[in-house]
């Protein structure tokens, strides 16, 4: 993230503690999927340890779009707009993620209504960062491809 900040860094200490306490820890092996493109998702995941690959099928080829590590959030787009996942997310190695569902977040908002604003601001800063940096990363990857090999 900008200045090496991750989604969790944008939240205050109490918010982080509550999200971690309410989350379910998932242990993933290499190549285990967290999200599949096209599936509905009502969960936010944060990477605790390990690394995940974000990829999508483009012109019949599975293309890695991004890699995410500790502190990064997964599933935020589907969580925000209630649409299916826009990409596959798969563990690159043994990986641990925290999973927190929409119901747990809604319950915390009832306890602390100001959390709503802090939570969505953290998500928006995360998305903004990914949009700003993702284009450059994609350009670097594409420059290494032979576009003609991708076909029609």
Structure characterization notes:
This protein has 152 residues and is an alpha+beta fold. The protein has one domain: Jelly Rolls (Sandwich). The protein contains five helices and eight strands; from the N terminus they run αββββββαββααα. The strands form two sheets. A four-stranded antiparallel beta sheet has the order 1-8-3-6. It has a four-stranded antiparallel beta sheet with strand order 2-7-4-5.
User: What structural class do helix, strand and pairing data support?
Assistant: alpha+beta
> How many beta strands in the DSSP annotation?
8
**Strand residue content:** 25-35%
CATH class: Mainly Beta
Largest sheet: 4 strands, antiparallel
What low-confidence regions span 5 or more consecutive residues with pLDDT below 50? none
Number of helices: 5
CATH architecture descriptor text: Sandwich
Secondary structure: helix percent: 25-40%
Query: The CATH topology, please?
Result: Jelly Rolls
Radius of gyration: 16 Å
Report strand order across the widest sheet: 1-8-3-6
Choose one word for the global shape: globular
Our measurement of the CA-to-CA distance between the termini, rounded to an integer number of angstroms, reads 35 Å
